């Protein structure tokens, strides 16, 4: 569309005020006082014209007149004319010298029909080819918006516009101008770093809206050209997201159960092409919500398998950032479950593959960075573990959900993904309640996936009274409850239950734990041990206070043998008899010593007498 401010590009001849417009009817003539001598049919539409102005500028028409060898030739037929009759009318006006405006809407058509009619400078200077080339070079390729308008006008001219080079020039012009805008906006950001964010918002890529009107094949070539010219990756990603939002609006609102809507091949092509463009971008540069939206639409339009797998792979690498609503993808199979469990299963597989790759990379490094090191993969697995427990609880009430699919999600996550399995127990209990037709063996297989040692006190109490659970699980729950009770009575979590927890957390399943994850687990257990040591110190101080209290009671009690016997029995009761027996022996020894000295003194007195 031509803007009002766009400069006109007139033809080389002055405007004839008395000339009528061309019309498809033969009765309309270019000059009212000169009768036309030739009728040219353009795709079946007639034009009554004159030979001289046409053959003076069009090499094709000149050759056709010469080759006919008929001096009274009055009719010619032109087939497959670029732009049709409307564009031929403009070319004929140019031959007659009628002034008209060359715009971004008609320049591609005029350039193609000029090539078709061979309107080169060999027949007349400043012919239509040179005039349209001047407009393209001096006006169109100098601006991004005009290049986009010309590309949009090339619909129906792809083959000839491609051969002439209009598409390539406009595409390169868009990429170059976008790169220039990026440089200018980058300088503007540097200038406004210390100011408010309003100026920074004005530096955003304004051309995103312009590119959204292009056809998907042309848009794909534009993005490739932008990458070659060095346009920022975040700008390209933002452009792809905006293009998807503008071109796939109808599919977004489609309900999964609405089978009456027919999705055309065009939407499928758009999705597959955009996903292909995203495959070269960084994983973290694409928002996770956009990837989930594209995956839902890819499932709706039945896109190619490679397209859906690429989206699942990119989602799996960021699964720890997903929400529960993102995973609730409706299933389009009428006989299947309500939600697409298979897709979520593949996404989870991709996430675990990413964790394994990180573990293999970390295992090749020697040592740890610092004492405060925190494993990102361990935190991510814990988040995904909680996320999958919530997902299992959401899909469990589905009566059409098969047990193997439900168990496959549970078995896929490693044991160290759940520190507490209350969420898993809740999901299993919901599934058992919604599927009362399960056999006893199936219930046993499902409940074996729950680690009863990781259940909280509240969950254990509920499980012990749950009639839907097999007897074996109830026994296991009671066993671990007994260990917990024993630990609480003994006052030390290093015995019984705590040892079982250590076995369950650092035993056989720990073979699948990465070195960094194992290190984090050991540090966590170390903190628990320090806490238990602190508790034991508090208990020891209490015992020392009791000892001091009883010792004070011994000192205050000087009533004789009864008091000493009472104190001795107390000291023997707590295993501290040596402390008090030593003082009692010394007292007896001093008594005997004083009695002996008195006897010697009496004997000396008798001898002297």
From TrEMBL:
Source domain of life: Eukaryota
SUPFAM superfamilies assigned to the protein according to its UniProt record, in alphabetical order: POZ domain
Record-stated family: Belongs to the NPH3 family.
Ranges annotated as biased composition (Basic residues): 600-609
NPH3 domain ranges (all copies): 205-484
Coiled coil start-end: 519-546
Keywords carried by this UniProt record: Coiled coil, Ubl conjugation pathway
Annotated BTB domain residues: 36-104
Record-given protein name: BTB/POZ domain-containing protein At3g08570-like isoform X1
Protein's UniProt keywords contain Coiled coil: yes
Region listing for Disordered, in residue ranges: 578-609
Biological source species: Dioscorea cayennensis subsp. rotundata (White Guinea yam)
Pathway(s) the chain acts in: Protein modification; protein ubiquitination
InterPro entries: BTB/POZ_dom, NPH3/RPT2-like, NPH3_dom, SKP1/BTB/POZ_sf
PANTHER family: OS12G0117600 PROTEIN
Signal peptide from the UniProt entry: none
């Amino acid at each position: 569309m031509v803007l009002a401010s766009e400069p006109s590009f007139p033809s080389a001849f002055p405007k004839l005020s008395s000339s009528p417009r061309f019309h498809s009817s033969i009765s309309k003539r270019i000059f009212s006082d000169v009768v036309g001598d030739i009728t040219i049919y353009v795709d079946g539409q007639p034009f009554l014209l004159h030979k001289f102005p046409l053959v003076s500028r069009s090499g094709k028409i000149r050759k056709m007149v010469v080759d006919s060898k008929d001096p009274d030739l009055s009719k010619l037929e032109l087939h497959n004319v670029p732009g049709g009759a409307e564009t031929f009318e403009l070319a004929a006006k140019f031959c007659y010298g009628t002034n008209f405006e060359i715009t971004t809407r008609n320049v591609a058509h005029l350039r193609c029909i000029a090539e078709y009619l061979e309107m080169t400078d060999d027949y007349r200077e400043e012919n239509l080819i040179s005039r349209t080339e001047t407009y393209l070079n001096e006006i169109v390729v100098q601006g991004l918006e005009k290049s986009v308008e010309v590309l949009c006008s090339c619909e129906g001219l792809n083959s000839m516009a491609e051969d002439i080079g209009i598409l390539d020039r406009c595409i390169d012009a868009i990429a170059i101008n976008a790169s220039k805008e990026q440089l200018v906006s980058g300088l503007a950001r540097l200038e406004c770093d210390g100011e408010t964010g309003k100026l920074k918002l004005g530096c955003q890529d304004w051309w995103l809206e312009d590119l959204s009107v292009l056809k998907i094949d042309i848009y794909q070539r534009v993005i490739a050209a932008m990458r070659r010219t060095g346009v920022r990756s975040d700008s390209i990603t933002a452009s792809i997201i905006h293009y998807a939002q503008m071109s796939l609006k109808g599919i977004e609102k489609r309900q999964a159960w609405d089978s009456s809507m027919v999705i055309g091949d065009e939407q499928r092509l758009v999705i597959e092409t955009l996903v292909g463009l995203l495959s070269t971008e960084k994983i973290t540069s694409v928002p996770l919500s956009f990837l989930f939206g594209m995956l839902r639409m890819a499932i709706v339009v039945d896109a190619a398998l490679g397209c859906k797998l690429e989206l699942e792979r990119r989602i799996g690498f960021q699964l720890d950032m997903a929400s529960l609503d993102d995973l609730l993808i409706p299933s389009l199979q009428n006989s299947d479950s309500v939600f697409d469990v298979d897709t979520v299963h593949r996404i989870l597989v991709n996430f675990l593959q990413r964790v394994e790759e990180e573990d293999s990379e970390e295992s090749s490094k020697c040592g740890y960075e610092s004492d405060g090191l925190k494993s990102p993969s361990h935190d991510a697995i814990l988040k995904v573990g909680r996320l999958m427990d919530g997902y299992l609880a959401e899909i469990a009430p589905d009566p059409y959900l098969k047990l193997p699919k439900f168990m496959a999600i549970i078995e896929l996550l490693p044991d160290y993904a759940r520190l507490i399995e209350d969420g898993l127990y809740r999901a299993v209990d919901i599934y058992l309640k919604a599927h009362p037709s399960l056999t006893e063996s199936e219930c046993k297989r499902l409940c074996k996936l729950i680690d009863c040692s990781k259940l909280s006190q509240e969950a254990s109490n509920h499980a012990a009274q749950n009639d839907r659970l097999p007897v074996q699980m109830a026994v296991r729950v009671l066993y671990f409850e007994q260990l917990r009770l024993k630990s609480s009575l003994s006052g030390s979590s290093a015995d019984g239950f705590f040892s079982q927890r250590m076995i369950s957390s650092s035993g056989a399943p720990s073979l699948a734990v990465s070195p960094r994850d194992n290190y984090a687990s050991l540090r966590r257990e170390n903190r628990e041990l320090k806490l238990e040591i602190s508790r034991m110190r508090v208990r020891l101080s209490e015992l020392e206070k009791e000892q001091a209290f009883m010792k004070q009671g011994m000192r205050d009690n000087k009533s004789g043998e009864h008091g000493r016997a009472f104190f001795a029995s107390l000291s023997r009761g707590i295993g501290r008899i040596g402390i008090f027996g030593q003082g009692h022996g010394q007292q007896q020894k001093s008594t005997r010593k004083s009695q002996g000295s008195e006897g010697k003194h009496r004997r000396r007195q008798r001898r002297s007498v």
